[in-house]
């Protein structure tokens, strides 16, 4: 008799069991699935599952949608719904954004600690307004959308000003140049950034660093930094890299992890990048040489002049191959360099 | 009666307890293994389950219980080491291999297992089965999920409602 009862109940289980799984078990399964998978399939499987998706804020504490790009249909509605379902409990968000979705995020998820924005296209003002209102934010990551506007490449300064409490900051495709510094003496410029007392981890990936010495300045504004990773499409020449490395390590003995543009450069498998590097290395070398000679006196005048000559001949040979934009950029750099002669 | 420590007895032999499934099958198992269940742990600490009187488990049938105990026996040594901080990489890899093999079973057995793990509060097993179920439905459409887990066919009414929801949420179509 016992076995027949058992058999009957097992048959019932297999036919309807999963659809009526107790809510707390379903939550465990859903947590393993993650927000994107829930929203793409599971929540439409049956009424019971849908109710769990809608009314369990615990499921939406970490809204991570790494594969939801702008090309996904309805991405904004999806991101919006996910954050709303968190009912204010959302502590980390990772996904695409624009002005509208950022404003919505700060309304619905005020206790966010970690924010990772990719495909970033929002205005600088909206971004700073929004991140300023996340009192608990300590981890921020931003990668602008491919082909973004110039202002999206100038986020380092405004982000630091809006969020001095950050512990970890990762920015991609940024430009650090003269706009980000103030002149303090004739030949000395300092970053305009306020002190970031808690910042331990700073990553600037694929950033254009026009004045390499700002990387030393960064240690003045981030006294507790022990991870600094900087990569760039243009690698610093060996001697500059070496000099910087030494200066940074002297200034900050606690630095456990340091990478500078060009360090460990082995995977040039990306042909485009390699091409770009070849195009720019002479220009880059010249620029850095000019700036460094002015700022640190590492390279003497004769050397600069030989770089200049090399660059000019390089230009005249390759002129037709150079993109117009790149040439404009070069002239701008040279102009800045010459200003300090 | 002096409450013995769970796990190893003083006289060298491990303490055993008896568990009784819903269909009256008796399982004798080391107390340390059964104690992976938070529900059983208290009873065992109080000295229950030893000798002639077993602990009845009216919600778990014998097929499921034997599977549950297979998991507990395998995981008991690591759990006794407090989450195994000094376990070697080999031990961990072996457990992982066991776990993968263990959940490679039909969805109806998975269902009984996750219900039993929930009733008996065996956190590791519950998490393991949940992960397996999540992997089974990852990347599938709602209808594929229903088929994978053997949901009954939706009534036309249910179907219409789900379609309406999916239309409402543009993201559901990609």
TrEMBL record, chain A:
Signal sequence residues: none
One Pfam family matching this protein: F-box-like
Recorded superkingdom: Eukaryota
Residue span(s) of domain F-box: 15-63
Name of this protein: F-box domain-containing protein
Lineage: Eukaryota, Viridiplantae, Streptophyta, Embryophyta, Tracheophyta
TrEMBL record, chain B:
Domain SKP1 component dimerisation intervals: 124-163
Gene Ontology terms describing biological process: jasmonic acid mediated signaling pathway; protein ubiquitination; ubiquitin-dependent protein catabolic process
Pathway named in the protein's UniProt entry: Protein modification; protein ubiquitination
Keywords associated with the record: Ubl conjugation pathway
Gene3D superfamilies in alphabetical order: Potassium Channel Kv1.1, Chain A
Domain (SKP1 component POZ) ranges: 16-75
Matches recorded under PANTHER family: SKP1
UniProt similarity note: Belongs to the SKP1 family.
Function: Involved in ubiquitination and subsequent proteasomal degradation of target proteins. Together with CUL1, RBX1 and a F-box protein, it forms a SCF E3 ubiquitin ligase complex. The functional specificity of this complex depends on the type of F-box protein. In the SCF complex, it serves as an adapter that links the F-box protein to CUL1.
Subunit comment: Part of a SCF (SKP1-cullin-F-box) protein ligase complex.
Protein name per Swiss-Prot or TrEMBL: SKP1-like protein
Species whose genome carries this gene: Eleusine coracana subsp. coracana
Lineage, highest ranks first: Eukaryota, Viridiplantae, Streptophyta, Embryophyta, Tracheophyta
